[in-house]
Amino acid sequence: MQHRAQGSARCCRLERAVMSVKGLDVLVVGGGVAGIGAASAFAQRGAQVTLLEQAADFLEVGAGLQISPNGARVIAALGQGASLDQLGTRSRAVVLRKGATGAEVLRMALPQDGPGFHLIHRADLIEVLRGGLTDVETRKLARVVAVAPDGPRPSVSLEDGAQLSADLVLGADGLHSVIRPALAAQPAQAPFFTGQVAWRALIPCTPDEAPEAQVFMGPGRHLVSYPLRNGRLRNIVAVEERADWAAEGWSHPGDPDALRHAFAGFGGPVPDWLAQVETLWLWGLFRHPVAARWHRGQAAILGDAAHPTLPFMAQGANLALEDAWSLAHVLDAAPSVAAGLSAWQDARAPRVARVIEAANRNARNYHLRPPLAPLAHLILRATGHIMPGAPLRQFAWIYDHDVTAA
After folding, report:
1. Is 226 annotated in the active site?
2. Which of 53, 86, 267, 290 is most solvent-facing, going by the fewest CB within 10 Å?
3. Of the listed 226, 266, 366, 399, which one is catalytic?
């Protein structure tokens, strides 16, 4: 009789928990943008959150990121808008240039009011988001090796043999997620090499450099650059089409001379920038299918674990922030955790797929060859003169989206 009463009390507690995020026991796997964002969003609503990070600390790694208004709105809603303005830099424009000469093709002025567009180092963005972890228990050196998603208390197993359970387990563990395959009804499609590789590097900069993103376009390749940390650093991402395969991942050392050779035909400031590159990283760009299933039982994935995207719309971090906020919001009013997870995927999946397709198109547009390239540049230049705001407005559906409005 006593056992039955305890079980009844437990059921009642869970029933109340799933009607509101408040009091829900949430386990977040991964200390990147998606993980810290989700931990903050759930804690803000009163959940009891534990964040698991496999490293000894939140790593000072990565390079530049662009936070567009859709992501900045989430950061502000998490109470970290002032920190974003302090550690990031508001971008004034995106400038498309001819790779060979550096001549301007199109300048897209960016709004300076409202949430705005920000240029920020990844480590600084992590620092911004960590400001929302005051009510979150963080466990480091906690590497998850397996997950059991079924049952009222899904659990994870750590490399050290420990096992942890919660009312809700969230996998924000990135491209090579441990959680993702455990939720799938069938094996995922293998990613495929896009025929493109990317180098990333940081070089010194000067505070008088304009805070704008520049895109130098050439046949089969393009280079993006913008200043970071109040002009102390310049971020460079250079993408080249090539037939040979390159390994996937962010941590493969690259050869500066190979980068300079690949972009030898570029002019303007590019040769001087590349001459300063001493350390850089090379990675192969793979297209991963969006996961068919983002949830199972009371476990779910978000960010790159659910829907990796190529970097050509600078939306990876922004989509992760949207995921984090919207997931907490949907579950806060769902009849049950499982029902909320299902409703959340149904609502998010169409937008995510559309953004990913836009990124895929941008890659093709930046790499046009003659005779298409001169014609496309002429059209862009004319459009910029006749309808200055039109090129940016075509992506208003991305930037104006506000998951915090509800």
Report:
1. yes
2. 86
3. 226
